[in-house]
């Protein structure tokens, strides 16, 4: 029902910035919250950030709070993740995700409940 495509990943030096984009289609985008997750080799997928349907509420993992900003443009069916002050430990494949239902507790910092996922985009931060 939902198709998600991430873009914007790449290789940056520590302290640099990247802006990830996630284009959504297949259902009414504006009715759903959205999340960003990341996964590095040998580790489980971890929560990064989430945003409510209208952008009024945002949630961040402690590891990225103050450095990353999630936003959305419903007119463009796109959610963004602005990543500043990048650290080598931010290196991972980043995924955007949508919950199965429009009513979902975005405070739950877990992949559980997110039914739709993009293909991922690689972010590599060198020291």
Could you explain how this protein is built, in words?
The protein has 127 residues and is an all-beta fold. 0% of the residues lie in helices and 49% in strands. The strands form 2 sheets. Strands 2, 4, 5, 6, 9, 10 and 11 form a 7-stranded mixed β-sheet that branches. A 4-stranded antiparallel β-sheet has the order 1-3-8-7, with no helix packed on it. The mean pLDDT is 95.
Q: Summary?
A:
Helix content is 0%, strand content 49%. The protein has 127 residues and is mainly β. The radius of gyration is 13 Å and the shape is globular.
Q: Approximately how much helix is present in the residues? A: under 10%
Give the topology string: H per helix, E per strand. EEEEEEEEEEE
How much of the sequence lies in strands comes to: over 45%
Number of helices: 0
Sheet having the most strands: 7 strands, mixed
Straight-line distance between termini: 40 Å
Task: Point out poorly predicted stretches.
Answer: none
Tertiary shape = globular
Structural class: mainly beta
Give the radius of gyration.
13 Å
Task: Give the tally of β-strands.
Answer: 11
Q: Quick check: average pLDDT?
A: 95
């Amino acid at each position: 029902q939902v198709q998600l495509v991430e873009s914007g990943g790449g290789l940056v030096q520590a302290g640099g910035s990247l802006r990830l984009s996630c284009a959504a289609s297949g259902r009414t985008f504006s009715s759903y919250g959205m999340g960003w997750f990341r996964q590095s080799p040998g580790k489980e997928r971890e929560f990064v950030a989430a945003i409510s349907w209208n952008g009024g509420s945002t949630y961040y993992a402690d590891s990225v709070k103050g450095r990353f900003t999630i936003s959305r443009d419903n007119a463009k069916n796109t959610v963004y993740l602005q990543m500043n002050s990048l650290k080598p430990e931010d290196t991972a494949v980043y995924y955007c995700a949508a919950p199965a239902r429009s009513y979902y507790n975005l405070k739950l910092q877990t992949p559980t409940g997110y039914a739709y996922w993009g293909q991922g985009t690689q972010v590599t931060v060198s020291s």
